[in-house]
């Protein structure tokens, strides 16, 4: 058994069920443990949700439009128009949303964890919801 998992289940409540254990993130009935030894007590968490932050696409779109406008007025130097269009398309392809686990407690709202893998973050939120429901919260 993983040492962090043993600590998560042996402290406070040795019978706490484990709802999630993946990539250093552990959710038990008693604790929410993150990589770097950041720990939240489950009894302090009232609600949890996933936030999705979509990056702005204005920069890449302006780059593409600049290339199109340049191409419309300068047929002699086509590469001057194609280069910004290709850069804009590549830039758009690199933009990925960021997802985060947001915890609400009596002390306020905390963004506990973020990442680009929406499925992983959703699985963590599900496990936290299950842990809250199991304790009767």
Automatic annotation (TrEMBL):
Pfam families: DUF6232 (PF19744)
Alphabetical keyword list: Membrane, Plasmid, Transmembrane, Transmembrane helix
Membrane-spanning intervals of the chain: 61-94
InterPro entries linked: DUF6232
Record protein name field: Uncharacterized protein
The organism of origin for this protein: Paraburkholderia ginsengisoli
